[in-house]
Amino acid sequence: SQQGEEDPQALSIQEGENATMNCSYKTSINNLQWYRQNSGRGLVHLILIRSNEREKHSGRLRVTLDTSKKSSSLLITASRAADTASYFCATDRTGGGNKLTFGTGTQLKVEL
Amino acid sequence: NAGVTQTPKFRVLKTGQSMTLLCAQDMNHEYMYWYRQDPGMGLRLIHYSVGEGTTAKGEVPDGYNVSRLKKQNFLLGLESAAPSQTSVYFCASADWSTDTQYFGPGTRLTVL
Predict the structure, then answer these.
(1) Which of A51, A89, B23, B91 is least surrounded by Cβ atoms within 10 Å, i.e. has the fewest?
(2) Measured between beta carbons, which residues in chain A are less than 8 angstroms from residue B27?
(3) Which of B90, B101, B108 to mutate to probe the A interface, most A CBs <10 Å?
(4) CA–CA separation, A90 vs A101, rounded Å?
(5) Is there a contact between A33 and A61 (Cβ–Cβ < 8 Å)?
(6) What integer pLDDT is reported at residue B42 of this predicted model?
(7) CB contact under 8 A, A100 and B101
(8) Comparing C-alpha atoms, which of A71, A80, A73, A72 is closest to residue A18?
(9) What is the pLDDT of residues B18-66, one digit of tens each?
(10) Res A40: pLDDT
(11) What CA–CA distance (Å, rounded) separates B11 from B109?
(12) Which of residues 66-95 of A touch B (CB under 8 A)?
């Protein structure tokens, strides 16, 4: 079963706008990570937030984590056409033994 | 540094045939993983390894076997392929000092 569910499933925005994706999960976690997948390629790690952190930034990425609601959001600011990709959240569950459980992904399309 | 490589990139099998997918990493990572990705379902863990000579079952292990005879290589075998195993297969290795997984480019497998 999927641990993480992303919302929305698909998102289409104009270049320069901000994109927000959400992830909900079911069990307690050590950390939550976001990955990007360009069409036909492998996944690339973007950012990790630990269970004792509430917000983290990396360049144009901002991740928040609310462990009480078991949810996370990924914000991409000033989006570019090159940000067009699928984005997946992945959780490292407490007691899960160094394994990640991936969500179903959000397909982001950034139009010129 | 090649990172994580997978061979082959594409393969077409007939039902009942067998094959082995090879994953190699040059980052000296202890942990390695095999996932399958199906449309709309994100990534699901098939098998994983926490070190040379060790393997363990993931979420969807049936119909697959693995071996980790050398630290840098992780093999995924299909003994008798079925159409339900048509998928894109990704290998990953993990640096758990940073809790980050590194993915290969994937193998697209079609079973007729």
Answers:
(1) A51
(2) none
(3) B101
(4) 5
(5) no
(6) 85
(7) yes
(8) A80
(9) 999 999 999 999 999 999 999 877 899 999 999 999 999 999 999 999 9
(10) 85
(11) 5
(12) 88, 90, 92
CA separation for the pair A88, B39 (Å, rounded):
13
How distant is the Cα of A1 from the closest Cα of chain B, in angstroms? 8
| pLDDT at site B41 | 78
Is there a contact between B105 and A41 if contact means CB atoms under 8 Å apart?
A: yes
Judged by CB atoms closer than 8 Å, whether chains meet at A99 and B40 is answered as: no
Distance CA B31, CA B51 (A): 6
Residue A34, amino acid: W
pLDDT of residue A97: 76
Residue B51, by phi and psi: left (phi above 0), alpha (psi -120 to 50) or beta? left
Sheet with strand B19-25: strands edge to edge:
B4-7, B19-25, B73-78, B64-67
| Gap between the terminal Cα atoms of chain B | 36
Residue B106, both tokens? 């994937």
User: Predicted confidence band at A2 (pLDDT cuts at 50, 70, 90)?
Assistant: very low
SS3 track for A20-45: EEEEECCCCEEEEEEEEECCCCCEEE
Q: Which two tokens stand for residue A57?
A: 């930034």
Q: Hey, are the CB atoms on A43 and B31 less than 8 Å from each other?
A: no
Q: A103: which chain B residues are within 8 Å (Cβ-Cβ)? A: 42
Residue in this structure with the two tokens 């056409």, named with its chain if needed: A81
- Does residue A1 register a pLDDT over 60? no
